[in-house]
Amino acid sequence: MQNEKRVEFAFEGHRFWDVRRWMIAKQTDNGIVHGLNSRPTVAELQATGLDVNSEAAGLAVFYKVVPMQTRVFTDRHYLMPIPQREMDVNPNMVQNYGW
Fold first, then answer.
1. How far is Cα 92 from Cα 82, in angstroms, rounded to an integer?
2. Most CB within 10 Å of its CB: which of 24, 50, 51, 75?
3. Using 50, 70 and 90 to split pLDDT, how confident is the model at 79?
4. DSSP states along 14-60
5. CA-angle at 21, arms to 15 and 22, nearest 5°
């Protein structure tokens, strides 16, 4: 069911909320995010043996998978923090866990 929904609704913005509702975000949204090498260094371009200004050299290094960022997802991220102005309106309200 989850994979079917992931494929059917790809690029429609549902995944962000689905992984939180299914409580699988710690597995899917934690760790290193990889991408393609869109900003190669001159040394990487020179290592291809091609002219560094050529399109061929750029394509040769573009498809190299590189780490882009490290994401951290903890239990507190399953719930959003309640805005302080809402807490001020109702003194009985308790802030969500971790915030």
1. 13
2. 50
3. very high
4. -HHHHHHHTT-HHHHSSEEEEEE-SS--HHHHHTTTS-TTSHHHHHH
5. 90
Query: To which residue do tokens 């590189």 refer?
Result: 66
- Give the pair of three-digit tokens for residue 59: 């394509």
φ, ψ of residue 65 to 5 degrees: the values are -80, 125
Distance CA 66, CA 58 (A): 15
**pLDDT range class, residue 87, cuts 50, 70, 90:** very high
Give the separation between CA 47 and CA 52, rounded to whole angstroms.
9
Longest Cα–Cα distance in the chain: 68
CB-neighbour burial class of residue 11 (10 A; exposed 0-12, middle 13-18, buried 19+)? exposed
Whether 73 shows a pLDDT value over 90: the answer reads yes
86 is written with which tokens? 């809402």
